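Weekly puzzle thread! Below is a chain. First person to post its structure in token form gets bragging rights.
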Amino acid sequence: MTHTWQITTVTDAARARIAASRVAAAYGVPLLERTRLATALGAHLRQCLTKGGTWRVALKVPGPGAGVAGASPLHITVTPAHETGDGGGPPPWRTSVVCPEAAEPPDGEVPADAAALAEALLGADEDTALALDKLAEQEELVAFHREELHQTNQGVLALHAELDAAGRAQREAFAAERKARTEAENARRRLTFLADASAVLTASLNHEEIVRRLPDLLVPRYAGSVDVWLFDHEDDKRRRPAPHPAAAVIAARTGRPQYAADHPGRLPGVDDQPPSALDPHRPLLCIPLPTRRAPLGVLTLSPPGDRWDADDAIMLIELTRRASIAIDNARRFEHSRDIAETLQRALLTDLPTTPGLGLAARYLPATHGLNIGGDWYDAFRQPDGSLITVIGDVTGHGLHAAVMMSQLRTALRAYAVDGGSPGQLLTRLHVFLHHLQPDLYATAVIARFRPDDPTLTWASAGHPPPVLRTPDGRSRILDAKPGAMLGIPLRQEIHDHTVPLSPGSTLALYTDGLVERRAQGIDPGIDRLAAELRAFDSTELDADLDGSADRILEPLLSDSPRDDDVCLLLCHVDSAARLGPGRVPAARTAGGSDPGDRPR
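Winning reply:
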């Protein structure tokens, strides 16, 4: 159904506007939509009246049952009343709204009298009031939402601030953790280096070797260069005195570390000094080598880079202290070793000269450790003209062992004056040592040579067995049953053993330092000694027994460091020696030995 109005005056426009509003209300158009429709229509009709002429308003409403509720449109069209249809006029104005409710088409006519218009105007004011109420509600709702949004924004801003603060705190925590981890790793690295370096320094008992190891340990990680100034080396006339930085002299005088550079070092426990005139462009750290008495010297270092880290400087000072202790201990050891060696050599006997019997002895102190003072050898004549040769080893080392060795040597010579066989002499030494030093023991071998007698008498007390080289180039280990060690809490009587001795024979007496190796034991060393003796010719031994002793020692000692002192005593019967009448000739040397002797 279509309602049409001719609009010429304002009254016509008002009647059309009122009718359109009533129709829309009848079809259930919401208040705001209805108000928008009436307002838009009124505004357009006002423009039409301004232009003048007659305008036609067409309101098309759905008929009964047309469409579906909520989907039927209500159309309004405004066109000029005398439109020619040739498209020359202005375009029609159209608007539409959806009718939510289906209704009977109302009467779209509005009376033209003033009362009806006034009543319609009042009705429009009611719609306006309702619209204003809706608008107020919306404004309150908008204000509420605006406040809520503002509060939300404030919360969001606060949350962002908290998140930023938490992020900064987390970053700071991560940075602190990384710094702590780095510091812990650096501390672990320094402690590991300090422990390893200390082990290297204390592994040696040679102070010069310790000094040589310091640059290898520190360069290039902790120092660019290392100089060790030991005070006692200044007294060595063979050395040319080297100039030392002023800071090193101050460190030696004050006992405090000094830092010499053109900038302050700010190192803990270190005094700052001007740069060294010897090297003004390079910082120097001068650390004294302290001991309980006085500094041993000064360690002068240059940095691996521009300067040292404070913690590295502390570590270097501690390492210097440990190096000083190691050097001091090594010097004390060397001093004790030198005293013991001097005493040992002073107590060793000059070998006697005996016609037809050559003697050669060698004593070598240990090169590692204070293992000197216990080994000894001796050779002397008895009143009956026989020659006693002895070699022994006192347990323990150092000065105490050297003193006990001298007492045993003196006691043996005193007992030999009364005569007695080798076994009897060892038995008396056993009793003597047990009563003199119950906690000290010794081993020994005594061999007796008689003039013009082709028989060797010997006895052993816990000592490595003698080795006898026969003139035919064979060697025999004299390992017949020996006695126990001297001085043990046991009553014993040590027995003699005999073996034929022909011209050209050589008897080797030795201590365990010559043949014993920790990884192999003693038997392989004895076999090697026997093999070395077999390699000689009797004429070589006749001509140069001393040189032969050196040639025996060289291969036996060249394969390992000497951690024990060594004694070797060679007794060689000259090949031209004459035996007494009726004695066993050289051709019979293969017989007559003790059953326990082993040929090698």
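Puzzle host: Confirmed. Bonus trivia for everyone else. The CA atoms of residues 289 and 414 lie 51 Å apart.
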